[in-house]
Amino acid sequence: PQTGAHPVRWGTGIGNAYRAADLERGWGYPAIAERALANGAYQDFHRGTARFRAIYSPRTGTHAVKLSGGIGTAWQKAGHEHGWGFPTTEEYAVNGGVAQKFSNGWVATWHRATGKVTVAKG
After folding, report:
1. Which among 74, 73, 63, 52 has a CA at the least distance from the CA of 120?
2. Do 32 and 53 contact (CB within 8 A), yes or no?
3. How far apart are CA 34 and CA 8, in angstroms?
4. Using alpha carbons only, what angle is made at residue 40 by residues 38 and 5, rounded to the nearest 5 degrees?
5. Rounded Cα distance, 101 and 20, in Å
6. pLDDT tens digits, one per residue of 91-114
7. Quick one: average pLDDT of 46-59?
8. Any alpha helices (H) in 1-122, and if so which ranges?
9. Which three-class secondary structure state does DSSP give residue 77?
10. Which residue of 14, 16, 62, 72 has the fewest C-beta atoms within 10 A of its own C-beta?
11. pTM value?
């Protein structure tokens, strides 16, 4: 009821990644249908208060950005894929927080102790 009904296109980069991420147990339920981008596609998912954007390009494949997290909030402020680029990894654990890599060479790191995000060329 929180998201309404939206299709997931099986056999696409996003549909295949959604299945691999354990469907609604991973990213949650689809909040919109898949939408085209100039260089790929995206689809938003909600799991409780967490919001994820699965974003696909032929060059990077499909990866999710946690829009409701520190890295996702900073990525949105930086212009989404037009700023740091498409995600090339999921978030992964680093000492003291989590990090995620993006196609324009940026690595964003969220620091648990401060709640801040730092961004550096990786």
Report:
1. 74
2. no
3. 7
4. 110
5. 20
6. 999 999 999 999 999 999 999 999
7. 95
8. 13-20, 70-77
9. helix
10. 16
11. 0.91
